[in-house]
Write a structure and sequence with these properties.
Strand content: 15-25%
CATH class: Alpha Beta
Mean pLDDT: 95
Largest sheet: 8 strands, parallel
Shape: globular
Helix content: 25-40%
Strand order of the largest sheet: 1-8-7-6-5-4-3-2
Low-confidence stretches: none
CATH architecture: Alpha-Beta Barrel
Number of helices: 8
Order of helices and strands: EHEHEHEHEEHEHEHH
Distance between the termini: 18 Å
Length: 227
């Protein structure tokens, strides 16, 4: 996969009464990917969007839909979320005892397969699936709620994952989710991150379109410094 920098506005932070408008606004700013959080109230202490909303969103946008399953038994729902419009689907290492099988199932549907690490889960737990995964999502907050403060230890994981893909000549993308804003996005991109999920810093700003453009410009400058 391409390691091009992308800002992924997180729809969990959008105004649900104006969801179509919110999506159109960030699309107008050049957004190519949207992040969609699914919570079940079991794996994480909250409940969020499901299949019907994803189906509706798919009808109004050409953006890549990145679906993050924060649920138990994610393998039961992979095919349904792909059918509803997901372009990429990520599952948690902590929720997937048969991780290789689940990632393979995602890829069999035609979607890109990602694996997610909670803040307390070390990178080495993914050693045997990094050659299979299309992307790795590093949680920089504890999953379950939007608007949380960034956990700096996530930067070390990104650097580890970037070093591993260089050493092993792997092509997975590195994604981050949680507390991403203008104060830390430069450091995150310099660490080697490709996909940067931003919720509150986009949709709860005065101008979501301006926020997306500013975040992308700053992240891209970090990538240039890395190169």
């Amino acid at each position: 996969m391409s390691h091009e920098i992308h800002i992924l506005p997180s729809l969990l932070a959008a105004d649900f009464t104006r969801l179509g408008e919110e999506i159109a606004t960030v699309e107008s700013a050049g957004t190519a990917m949207l992040h969609y959080d699914v919570m079940d109230g079991r794996f994480v202490p909250n409940i969020s969007m499901g299949l019907p909303i994803l189906e509706s969103i798919r009808k109004v946008t050409k953006c890549w839909l990145d679906v993050h399953l924060m649920i138990v038994e994610p393998e039961r729902y992979v095919e349904a979320f792909r059918a509803a419009g997901a372009d990429s689907i990520s599952v948690h290492q902590e929720a997937s005892p048969h991780l290789h099988r689940t990632l393979s199932l995602i890829q069999a549907t035609g979607a890109k397969a990602g694996v997610v690490l909670n803040p307390a889960t070390p990178v080495h737990t993914l050693d045997d699936v990094l050659g299979l995964a299309d992307f790795v999502l590093v949680m920089s907050v504890n999953p379950g709620y939007g608007g949380q403060k960034f956990i700096p230890a996530a930067l070390h994981k990104i650097r580890q994952l970037d070093q591993i893909r260089r050493q092993r000549n792997l092509n997975y993308c590195i994604e981050i989710d949680g507390g991403v804003d203008m104060s830390n996005i430069l450091e995150i991109s310099e660490a080697g991150c490709d996909w940067l999920v931003a919720g509150s810093s986009v949709f709860r700003s005065e101008s979501p379109a301006t926020a997306v453009r500013d975040l992308h410009t700053r992240a891209a400058s970090g990538r240039q410094l890395l190169a």
